[in-house]
Amino acid sequence: MQPEQERRLQIPLSQFMTVILATVLALSLMNFALTAIKSYRLRHVELELKAEIKAEQEEQGRLLDRKRFVQSEQYQRQLAHELGLYAENERPLVLVLPPEMKGEFEEVNPVFRTGQQLEKPYWQQWWDLFFGSDDLESLTR
Fold first, then answer.
1. Which of 39, 112, 33, 127 minimizes the C-alpha distance to 78?
2. Which of 66, 111, 122, 106 is nearest to 86 (CA)?
3. Phi and psi (nearest 5°) for 72?
4. Which of 138, 76, 96, 86 is nearest to 116 (CA)?
5. How far apart are CA 48 and CA 53, in angstroms?
């Protein structure tokens, strides 16, 4: 009886190796597929983030341009004129156009002249009073 039991328990080596290789191949293909899917998803996220970075950089450039304009003297004068504030030597210029020209010129840009410097804002006058004018000029430069 022993020879029969030994034959039943023995599996041919070629069948055993085939099962092992098929299992390894299946696991390798599954791992490759999962890696490819993960890589695709990461690439998609990377492209989204690059597009978002580009949009943020454009927004930053636009905001820096706006900041430069707002800090310019031209903007300060324009804002003061819109609020009805003028320097002592400035007078608002009102153009009276003939009726036939009104359709051509709906809005006329203000004329800027160089003149006396505007009086300092109150906060600068207080600063000068308490700390002296040299400190403020060194900070703003």
1. 112
2. 111
3. -75, 155
4. 86
5. 9
Question: What single-letter amino acid sits at 136?
Answer: L
Q: What is the chain's length?
A: 141
pTM for the complete prediction? 0.41
Q: Token match 């207080």: residue? A: 126
Count, in order, helices (H) and strands (E) of the chain: 5, 0
pLDDT, one tens digit per residue, over 65-79 is: 999 998 998 888 888
- The DSSP-derived string for 53-77 is HHHHHHHHHHHHHHHHHHHSHHHHH
Positive or negative, the Cα torsion across 125, 126, 132, 137?
negative
Measured distance CA(14)–CA(27) in Å, rounded = 20
90-103 confidence digits (pLDDT tens):
777 666 777 776 66
